[in-house]
Amino acid sequence: AMKGAIFDLDGVIVDTAKYHYLAWRALANRLGFEFTEADNERLKGVSRMRSLQILLEVGGMDADEAEREQMAELKNKEYVDYISRLESSELLPGAKEYLMFLRSRGVRIALGSASKNAAFILERLGITELFDAVVDGTKVAKAKPDPEVFLTASAELGLDPADCVVFEDAAAGVEAAKAAGCRVVGIGSADILGAADQVVGGLDALLP
Ligand code: G6P
Ligand code: MG
């Protein structure tokens, strides 16, 4: 049975994946190339600097360390502009209800996100208190598909990864969760998340 539940943030709990995409696309356009939603799938779940590296690959561009720092900062500034206006209405369908349902069943809950903006987003949405542990991009060194984020989250919950279920919308996240030894529920389309143990369209589908 599930003793712990570990949730990715962007694209699972809150509809911020679109803002990451808009901010990355704006950067690409500024650099002079197109960046499609299909290209963007490769960035989901991936850390900020690794995302930038993939984006530059797509544009066939090179940049030195200082330039990359600057580009990442520009993207993040635009992204933070979006999320500082985030509303509760942008919580994904069933997300808050499912967290509350699991809590009522005694399941321990962690966040497992690559984002350095995660704590800010949880505060902004008023859902920080629903989590027993928050593991985010400020706490982990290795980006998904490395299992570090989910191993750390299960450890912070005091649970064996095998007793935890991970909820993920990104292929890299599903891979990371499997590598950690967790069960994985993919949130989105089976075409992209085929490696998950189960795929649903949204957390609302899991409510009783
Ligand atoms: C999540 C998102 C990625 C994002 C990463 C880092 O995993 O799915 O798209 O690049 O977090 O987010 P940050 O807010 O730190 O730039
Ligand atoms: Mg995600």
Automatic annotation (TrEMBL):
Binding site for substrate: 8-10, 24, 43-48, 51, 75, 113-117, 144
SUPFAM superfamilies: HAD-like
UniProt site positions, description: Important for catalytic activity and assists the phosphoryl transfer reaction to Asp8 by balancing charge and orienting the reacting groups: S113, K144
Keywords: Magnesium, Metal-binding
GO molecular function: beta-phosphoglucomutase activity; magnesium ion binding; sugar-phosphatase activity
Cofactor(s) needed: Mg(2+)
Cofactor: how bound: Binds 2 magnesium ions per subunit.
Top-level taxon in the UniProt lineage: Bacteria
Binding residue positions for Mg(2+): D8, D10, E168, D169
Catalytic center residues: D8, D10
GO terms, biological process: carbohydrate metabolic process
Similarity remark: Belongs to the HAD-like hydrolase superfamily. CbbY/CbbZ/Gph/YieH family.
Identification of the protein by name: Beta-phosphoglucomutase
